[in-house]
Protein: Sphingosine-1-phosphate phosphatase 1-like protein
Amino acid sequence: TLLKLVEWLKDPLLVSKFQHFYGIQSLDYRKCRDKRNDKSDVKCNCTIVEKIDAKNILPKESKVGEELRPRSVDIAECSFCSTSDTASDNGDSSATESDRLKRSPEYVVRNKFWYYLFSFGAGLGYELFYASFFPIWFWNIDGAVGRRMVLLWVIIMYFGQALKDVIKWPRPASPPVIVLEPEYAMEYGMPSTHAMVGFALPFSMLIFTYHRYDVSFCFESRVTVIGVNFSIRCGVVFFLPLSGACSSADIVVGLLLSSTLLVVLLPLVDVIDQFHLKSLYSPLISVPTITLMAKFYPKSDRWSPARGDTCIIMGAGEGILLGSWLNYQLGIIRGPGLPPPFPIIWPGFNLLGLGLLRATIGIICIIAVRAIGKVLVFSIMCYIHKLNPKDPETKIRSSVEVPCKLIAYMAMGISITYLSPAIFRFLNIERITMFTEV
Structure:
């Protein structure tokens, strides 16, 4: 039945097996191994949960989907103790039963190839990637496609992040799962926003580029483009169970939700983009809209970085669109002389050098704006609310965190599409076609 399928997909043992298969293995077995030759003690230090971690065996008394709690077992019963080459020599022998309940097991990476490959894929879903990918895309490739991708990115991420705090579906239990990214353990897991954006962003990039440019090139080039696109999606999605961040159910629901949103949003993106770009009054609608979206973001029963991350995404996205709006209203963006599809201009050494120079100068500008904006807005919020800026609790108060991240990252977005291109024009290193991308 559907319910059994959902329970099976939620099972943390699936994640644990995936981790074990790709070389992420627990180090919590040294005590047990050391007692292997101690015939006077019939008890070992293994538990049912650890036994699952070592051999991926579900105990008979456990049911799929139920929370597993450690239980001591006999040496004769423990299949881990009966083998001589399973445990690692580098385990922590000081861990206690209570310690294991409070934290994820220590681990060792047995297969560094898969670990680094999936880590790279996961990096495509974090702030560092977005803070470099979107600027470089706007400065060196195509602003019109970039605006549309940003619109989808903001809407899809808001829906996904908000649903996490509505559904309140916890991440896979640890143990047996080994958590590689503890900083995100406080977030709920359903749906997986990594999976959502990992599917939506490459797919939308392919669709928007295909309709804007003449891509009637050779079959090998098409296969390469599609292969790179598919690899990006797989890298993001497959790292999620490896990191212990999401269950299979979180990923499946994220992919289904992302696909559904794309079906609804793709026909509307052009209309929204053109209205925001060309209407003189569009900021009077968009800025209050994202402010209200941040204000009425679903409240969680505990603090997590989800709300702050959502404000970062909304602020950066609105800033990028505001910068493009300024360019159009000031006559900097004029529109192309010919309708699409446009021919692809393949870069030579000169264009590659200019692109690298723009990226270097622009990213320095972004870092400066982000640093100044965060400090300035934080100081103003602390002054308005009469809060101590040195108190760690101040930074996570919603009355401070929300405006700080919205305004600081909005300024950062404006610097991507307005301030940095102005510097490029001053230095005579701008990309000429950037000002025709309506």
In short: The radius of gyration is 25 Å. The first strand starts at residue 24 and ends at 26. Residues 25-109 form one domain.
